[in-house]
């Protein structure tokens, strides 16, 4: 028989092993991608897969030669930040009115907004493609900004709503008694009080926009193509070049991975919103 | 400075009427307390005055100026919230200066007014702290300070003491009374605690079910309640009620018989009261005395005796299963289950008709 203390230790050890296992399983593809990006194409194809090899930078050099990385990266930056800024400008007032001036229909409106995220995007691809074509917005950054804003808005409103709900209504009423206009009330009282939550919302929107591939592949060609489209351009008709594909993927993921690493504290709070108080 | 007048104020949420036509006049410098059970509309009335609730109909005037439709900040009122509602991201100083900044006052005026409020409320050492570093009592004082700096016409308090512990509540109550005296300001105060109402108010407004039951000085309400609700709501412990019937009555007095069979003549006008009609006798704990059980109006069994030191409150169950609350001397030594005799001070008893309306006493001496 194990003592209570021993059982406790065993439990912890088992849970720890499981957690490490899951973490490694999630991280392994990223690790393998980075590793492959430093291999020659021959090493990359080798069976059994090689862990020990002579690293090379030739893939990166070739990508640099063949495509303008910074053009795609800049598009990613413009589109992610653009859609996030516009999204927040819409989401904050929407969440404010839903959180503090709730009506009978607020809850169902929120659910309806979220339910639009459940539609398969491909279902609206044709109408949106035709609309964009008629409006001349195919392969424009503005077009992508608009579409990203719209697809992320439900999540942004929902998150902002959840954070605003935690703020006592009294404090906003006190500001109103103190003579704050609506804008002053939001800017000087509401936003400073919910800045942690709103920061998570901004981060999540940036990451989702950065990683979005379906719409960027279908609505852009070269002018407005972000990094996700750059990756896809390396899965060429001449066959797959694993090492080069890995190198370009590493380049596309690196900025957002570093960004996520720096802001992980905010992200954890953002992704577990509503779950823990 | 000006009087506040409320004319036929109504507020409804959909079909539910919260305020059913409130008419009220609050004089300059008065300390008025709205009191009533939960859901009686007292907070809604206060918030309507503040401008935080839109009213359905009716008017509110401050002096000659109608303020019914004005934005809260334009009404020249300040409010202290139950939860204090301090801005958590601002220092105490910022919390107090926020309204003045918004009003576009210059820095020297702001500094002077904040300093003055901090002096009055003894907040000077705390000015640079954030609300989370303050105790409940200190937060309460900051909330009051925030309203003082604006020099409003009327102060509104929404159950400001209910988040404080018992000792601090008594202390803050005294401080509020002093503050009212020092500022000589008009104050409207909402509470469900009738002790706060009795101790603080110049004028008490008793609300029930969205209507005003009675308005008057605390003593007026205590000694001359217009109905059974007000009689039962004010006073601690509560007035006891005993059902009975009218035997006879004229302008000199009224004879009644209680369910227990006890008959008594009360100095209450029996004019216009029908013989045989149902009435309720109301008597406060201090107007019942414990006596020898063989020489008393009532007999009953002692259920609980609460010894407070100076007094003992006895809860006595009569033969007809009614509970009477009795104030006995602190030296009272009765035990659970003892049979005790009770005598009523008939000159201080109240009588209510079947609708709960008070039947007039012959004399209105308040004692």
Outline the secondary-structure elements.
The complex is a heterodimer of chains A (277) and B (367).
Chain A: H1 4-37, H2 41-45, H3 58-66, H4 69-100, H5 106-115, H6 125-135, H7 141-165, H8 169-177, H9 182-193, H10 195-211, H11 214-219, H12 227-233, E1 235-236, E2 239-240, H13 242-262, H14 264-271
Antiparallel strand pairs in A: 1-2
Chain B: E1 4-13, E2 16-26, E3 31-35, H1 42-50, E4 57-62, E5 65-66, E6 77-80, H2 92-102, H3 107-120, H4 136-148, E7 154-158, H5 166-183, E8 186-191, H6 194-200, E9 203-208, E10 211-216, H7 218-223, H8 228-233, E11 240-250, E12 253-258, E13 263-266, E14 278-283, E15 288-291, E16 298-307, E17 311-318, E18 323-329, E19 339-344, E20 350-352
Helix pairs in contact in B: 2-3, 2-4, 3-4
Relative helix content of chain A: over 70%
List how many beta strands of chain A DSSP finds: 2
Question: From the helix content, strand content and strand pairing of chain B, which structural class follows?
Answer: alpha+beta
Task: Work out the oligomeric state of the chains in this entry.
Answer: heterodimer
Could you please describe the fold and organization of this structure?
- The complex is a heterodimer of chains A (277) and B (367).
- Chain A is mainly α and 277 residues long.
- Chain A has helices spanning 4-37, 41-45, 58-66, 69-100, 106-115, 125-135, 141-165, 169-177, 182-193, 195-211, 214-219, 227-233, 242-262, 264-271; strands at 235-236, 239-240.
- Chain A is 74% helix and 1% strand.
- The model of chain A has no long low-confidence stretch (mean pLDDT 89).
- Chain B has helices at residues 42-50, 92-102, 107-120, 136-148, 166-183, 194-200, 218-223, 228-233, and strands at residues 4-13, 16-26, 31-35, 57-62, 65-66, 77-80, 154-158, 186-191, 203-208, 211-216, 240-250, 253-258, 263-266, 278-283, 288-291, 298-307, 311-318, 323-329, 339-344, 350-352.
- In chain B, strands 6-7-8-3-9-10 form a six-stranded mixed β-sheet, with helices on both faces.
- In chain B, a hairpin with a 2-residue loop joins strand 9 (203-208) and strand 10.
- Chain A binds chain B through residues 168, 170-171, 173-180, 184, 188-189, 192-193, and chain B through 50, 52, 71-73, 77-79, 81-83, 85-89, 98-99, 102-103, 146, 150.
């Amino acid at each position: 028989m194990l003592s209570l203390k021993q059982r406790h230790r065993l439990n912890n050890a088992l849970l720890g092993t499981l957690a490490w296992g899951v973490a490694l399983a999630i991280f392994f593809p990223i690790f393998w991608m980075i590793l492959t990006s430093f291999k020659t194409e021959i090493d990359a194809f080798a069976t059994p897969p090689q862990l020990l090899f002579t690293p090379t930078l030739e893939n990166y050099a070739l990508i640099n030669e063949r495509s303008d990385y910074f053009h795609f990266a800049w598009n990613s930056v413009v589109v992610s930040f653009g859609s996030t800024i516009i999204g927040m400008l819409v989401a904050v007032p929407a969440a404010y009115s839903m959180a503090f001036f709730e009506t009978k229909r607020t809850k169902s409106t929120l659910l309806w907004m979220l339910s639009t995220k459940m539609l398969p995007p491909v279902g609206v691809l044709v109408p949106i493609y035709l609309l964009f074509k008629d409006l001349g917005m195919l392969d424009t950054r503005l077009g992508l900004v608009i579409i990203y804003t719209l697809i992320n808005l439900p999540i942004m409103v929902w998150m902002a709503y959840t954070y605003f709900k935690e703020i006592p209504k009294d404090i906003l009423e006190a500001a109103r008694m103190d003579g704050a206009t609506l804008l002053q009330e939001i800017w000087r009282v509401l936003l400073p009080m919910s800045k942690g939550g709103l920061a998570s919302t901004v981060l999540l929107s940036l990451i989702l926009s950065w990683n979005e591939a379906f719409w960027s592949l279908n609505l852009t060609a070269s002018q407005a193509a972000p990094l996700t489209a750059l990756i896809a351009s390396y899965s060429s008709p001449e066959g797959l070049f694993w090492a080069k594909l890995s190198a370009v993927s590493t380049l596309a993921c690196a900025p957002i991975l570093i960004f996520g690493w720096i802001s992980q504290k905010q992200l954890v709070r953002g992704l577990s919103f509503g779950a823990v108080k | 400075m000006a009087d506040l007048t409320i004319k036929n104020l109504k507020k409804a949420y959909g079909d539910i009427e919260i305020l059913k036509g409130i008419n009220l006049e609050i004089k300059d410098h008065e300390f008025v307390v709205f009191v009533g059970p939960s859901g009686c509309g007292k907070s809604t009335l206060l918030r309507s005055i503040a401008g935080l609730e839109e009213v359905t109909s009716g008017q509110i005037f401050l002096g000659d100026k109608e303020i019914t439709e004005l934005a809260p900040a334009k009404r020249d009122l300040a409010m202290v919230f139950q939860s204090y509602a301090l801005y958590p991201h601002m220092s105490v100083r910022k919390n107090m200066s926020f309204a003045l900044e918004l009003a576009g006052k210059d820095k020297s005026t702001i500094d002077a007014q904040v300093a003055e409020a901090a002096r009055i409320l003894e907040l000077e050492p705390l000015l640079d702290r954030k609300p989370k570093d303050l105790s409940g009592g200190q937060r309460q004082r900051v909330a009051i300070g925030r309203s003082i700096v604006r020099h409003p016409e009327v102060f509104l308090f929404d159950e400001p003491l209910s988040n404080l512990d018992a000792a601090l509540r008594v202390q803050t109550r005294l401080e509020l009374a002093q503050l009212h005296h020092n500022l000589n300001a008009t104050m409207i105060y909402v509470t469900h605690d009738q002790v706060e109402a009795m101790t603080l108010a110049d004028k008490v407004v008793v609300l029930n079910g969205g209507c005003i039951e009675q308005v008057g000085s605390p003593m007026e309400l205590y000694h001359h309640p217009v109905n059974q609700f007000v009689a039962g709501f004010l006073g601690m412990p509560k007035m006891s009620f005993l059902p009975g019937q009218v035997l006879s009555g004229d302008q000199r007095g009224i004879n009644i018989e209680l369910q227990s069979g006890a008959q008594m003549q009360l100095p209450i006008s029996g004019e216009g009261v029908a013989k045989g009609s149902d009435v309720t006798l109301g008597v406060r704990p201090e107007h019942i005395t414990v006596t020898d059980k063989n020489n008393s109006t009532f007999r009953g069994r002692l259920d609980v005796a609460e010894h407070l030191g100076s007094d003992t409150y006895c809860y006595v169950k009569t033969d007809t299963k009614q509970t009477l609350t009795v104030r006995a001397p602190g030296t009272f030594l009765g035990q659970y289950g003892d049979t005790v005799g009770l005598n009523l001070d008939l000159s201080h008893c109240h009588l209510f008709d079947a609708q709960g309306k008070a039947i007039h006493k012959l004399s209105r001496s308040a004692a």
